[in-house]
């Protein structure tokens, strides 16, 4: 492994994750060269090298390698995994390892690095936050007769809210005459009076809850036309 190859690999890592504050390494020739030292300094990275012949100086990395080797050895020794590629076994282990809280930090590597937990197959047993929020929103819309999914077309029989000064608001049986937008409709009552209504002021004429409030015609209503 040359210095140039090492720098190429580090550039790819830095491009994905950003520049680290510190880089800890051993004393390999490619890591102590003038070119490598210049590369780190130009990027504002402090280079810490382990003591020669004492790899425990970089204990965190050594422990991670030790844990990974032990897990791979155990997985490869299991007859159930004999037909599974080593790369797949390694990937599955790393996903679990990066999601597991560390004994020193109390946080998982993914949480410290990404600020979030990595999604895994265990999450299939639970609803995601997005699903929970969406279900609550849909229930709210159903409970309060929201307009999210209400869409009418020309000719639909509907009930529209009717407002008359000094009178309690009521519902008037009408028909959709024209679609004015995603939320606005031009409606015509049975006595040929025209009204502009928002979708929140319109319900399907088949809804039984408002049948007792139905007025086939409304006398003295002020019509609104284009």
UniProtKB/TrEMBL annotation:
SUPFAM superfamilies: Ribonuclease H-like (SSF53098)
Coiled-coil ranges (or none): none
Integrase catalytic domain ranges (all copies): 1-117
A molecular function GO annotation: nucleic acid binding
Superkingdom: Eukaryota
Xref: InterPro entries: Integrase_cat-core (IPR001584), Retrovirus_Pol_polyprotein (IPR050951), RNaseH-like_sf (IPR012337), RNaseH_sf (IPR036397)
GO biological process: DNA integration
Signal peptide region: none
Annotated PANTHER family: PROTEIN CBG26694, RIBONUCLEASE H
Protein name according to UniProt: Integrase catalytic domain-containing protein
Naturally occurring in which organism (per UniProt): Schizaphis graminum
Gene, per the UniProt record: K02A2.6_21
